Amino acid sequence: EAGVTQFPSHSVIEKGQTVTLRCDPISGHDNLYWYRRVMGKEIKFLLHFVKESKQDESGMPNNRFLAERTGGTYSTLKVQPAELEDSGVYFCASSQARNEQFFGPGTRLTVL
Amino acid sequence: GENVEQHPSTLSVQEGDSAVIKCTYSDSASNYFPWYKQELGKGPQLIIDIRSNVGEKKDQRIAVTLNKTAKHFSLHITETQPEDSAVYFCAAPSSMNRDDKIIFGKGTRLHILP
After folding, report:
1. Cβ(A45)–Cβ(B93) below 8 Å
2. Quick one: CA torsion of A65, B88, A107, A90, rounded to 10 degrees?
């Protein structure tokens, strides 16, 4: 069974540009989560989808971040316009049961 | 809301020795405590978890202990091997009713020395 996949693995963009990150969860997993780790700090929750609905987006930093999960399958996280402080590693996780979340390898975003 | 503190930030142990990583949490209602291991180039992977109705759980060379009174829990790795080198994260639920919204510690980078 394929695990959670994320694309791209790395992205380097300039301040003010737009970047879209993609997450493909494990097939059949209704729950999809986005997290972010800024260098040296803890992994922080961004938001949670149940199927195509946003269950909790309390961790989204600001309105420059937009997450979607059309059709309840893959999800995208768009940052527009990107700022320097958006740099970090963005993880996606999926689960069927409430507790056991399976994480993807992450997308390392660098904003110059 | 929940706050999770993790120590140490870096830990080096000789191969074959034991490693212990400690975490504290703030919300006495928290009842689920997972531990994640992140290897280079990969995402965090759940390695063991414990619920508040038990004080200790063991899976081969790894064990987790929980002290609800003191609000701390620890990861113990015995007979460490090179493949144990990784970053380890403890976590706790953000609130009693949201055990799937987890709050992570800052991580411990474990180095196993040959």
Report:
1. no
2. 0
Closest chain A residue to the Cα of B37, Cα to Cα: A103
Q: Mind listing the pLDDT tens digit for each residue in A86-104?
A: 999 999 999 987 668 899 9
Question: Is B33 at the interface with chain A, CB within 8 A?
Answer: no
CB atoms < 10 A from the CB of A2, how many?
A: 8
The A-side interface with B (CB below 8 A) comprises 4, 31, 33, 40-45, 48, 56, 91, 93, 95, 98-106
> Higher confidence at residue B98 or residue B83?
B83
Residue in chain A nearest B102 by alpha carbon: A45
For strands A31-37 and A5-7, give the pairing: unpaired
Question: Is-cis flag, bond preceding B34, omega within 30?
Answer: no
Question: In the structure encoding, which two tokens stand for residue A44, read together?
Answer: 């922080």
Give chain B positions within 8 Å (CB) of A103: 36, 43-45
